[in-house]
Specification:
Chain lengths: ~450, ~250
Amino acid sequence: MRGLDLRIDPGERVLLLGESGAGKSTFLHALAGVVGDDEGETEGSLLVDGEHPAAHRGRTGLVIQDPDSQVILERVGDDVAFGCENLGVPRDEIWLRVRDSLAAVGLDVSLDRNTSALSGGQKQRLALAGVLAMRPGLIVLDEPTANLDPEGVTEVRDAVIRVAESTGATIVVVEHRVSVWSDVVDRIVVLAAGGGVIADGAPADVLARQGKELAARGVWIPQYPPPRPVRAERGPQHTLLSARQLTVGRSNHALGAPLDLEILSSHALAITGPNGVGKSTLALTLGGLLPPVGGAVVASPALATGAGEHPIRWKSRKLLTRIGTVFQDPEHQLLTSTVRAELEVGPRALKLPDSEVDARVEELLTRLRLDRLAEANPFTLSGGEKRRLSVATALATRPQVLVLDEPTFGQDSRTWSELLALLARLVDDGSSVIAVSHDLDFVAALADSTVVLE
Amino acid sequence: MIPIASVNPVAKLGAGLIVSLFLLATIDWVSATTALVLELAIIAFFGIEPKRFWLRTLPVWLAAPLTALTILLYGRYDGTVYFEFLLIRISDGSIELALATFLRVLAIGLPAVVLFISIDPTDFADGLAQRLRLPDRFVIGALAAVRMVGLFLEDWRSLELARRARGVADRGRVRRIAGQGFALLVLSIRRGSKLSIAMEARGFGGDTPRTWARKSPWGRAEWLTLLVGLLIGVTATVVAVLTGSWNLIVG
């Protein structure tokens, strides 16, 4: 980003918008003073309280998107205390601040509680408490609710507002989902992709003037919901997979009650439910990747076509044309160093002729808007691009069943609606789609039936 | 019951080191046996559940006989030879040395494992930084890294499943694990850099002298722990010297 002129007054609550790549995260990192001089070029000046941001660490607190990568210590109390220790706050004062901060974010757990046992929403509030304990004048939040379930989103949003009201701290937040914040901020600033500011003003004004434009660029604007696919007439359905008295779990520890399920062709099934009930584990088990703890996952003869009736016993290669799985974190599935090579992995494992491999890869590159990135390293892609790539790699081998774990997590509205259109077409063309999702809009737009785990 | 869990981890480390130093100075079965008997008598008062004790110390119980076996077959040749085959030669000398080694591995390994069962990484880091005055950055950095090990284990499992889903899990085990190891390395570097940003954003690595939220207490219990370590080492040495079996390892 370049050429940005912006002045934020003490106590303001600002929502920062802009399409992916507009440099919002970079700007927040710079505000927090964690952009090193060796990481890219800087021109112009950025002052917090009239000084260089790195000059007084702790005046600005930063909360980032990924809950797991900002938990630092093992016990809740110690983690909140970490910032204070670094600022040289005396011991007695630290523990007063720790208790105050945990109360302010509404995290009512023991100080000795293990931080890895917290839910995503609790981890984000823990991070906020850790920031708050440093008594910052400015709190910047980089998509703090993007990776959370609806309950977690509300928890974190409410905690931020409570903190702002009680401390008077200035808040700058970046988030794609405008509806979460539009009622509680007093200013929206829209950054241009090339640099500079497109719009700046009261939320209602900015949304009225720029809403349509922003929605087209992937920002979630309540008044302009992303388009939903028109569904086609579908052919007759038949069973591809069935779960019989299935219990799932890791290392033989069962999660939840036995389950019976029929997975049909031309059908989209959504799996929902609160955190920790085993939705992802169920998805991996249906995907033939984890062995069932009890009962069985059975492939119909139409799906198995000679591979045997238990997907978990299939060779890895046999899965490719039968059941594809898209993981929650796309990075776990990356195997190569270019987008093109990534798409070729599946077709090559099937030993398809070169011409067929090329044809499939080209088609997917175009269809998922990845053609300009064909030679890029998958790890350098944005979140939305990585998600599209991980779906594309599964589609390259044309599986009859596609299993997806939280496919819309953290996606902008444009990727969201493209993904939805793609999956709807797969279903209309006869495939079966199984999606684990917290995203109620997504479920409503796609699912033919829903299983709620409890 | 001895409340060993609340003793400063640095004292536990110290006591373990002291015993090891005495036992590493000599190689004979008397000193090792004496130390082992004293240690087991003390460990019995720690109140560790038997199942936990055996599970955690299992590696030591496996390592001791394996090391001893190697020495039995290939160790120093002395006195009567009982069996000979190629390089293998079992003699009075190798039997004695094997026995001494077996006991020594137990006498050093068991207390080390038992003392470390009760060590909390955070308390240990506090002790290293506040008591031994090791540099903050090093200690806190290592502590944060240790906490990430759990995440790496989860990553590893996901990588394994993801490879099966991508159709590449059928090829050779060695190649697969090598590829997966590289992927884990990439992921862990990314996780590490995110974590370091989070730490920096909370003022870590600044110029302000750091304070410590937790005390790292040092008092009678800690001195006593060191003293017990010293007594075990001295007793073992004295008994070995008196029975004439103490032999200093030089070089």
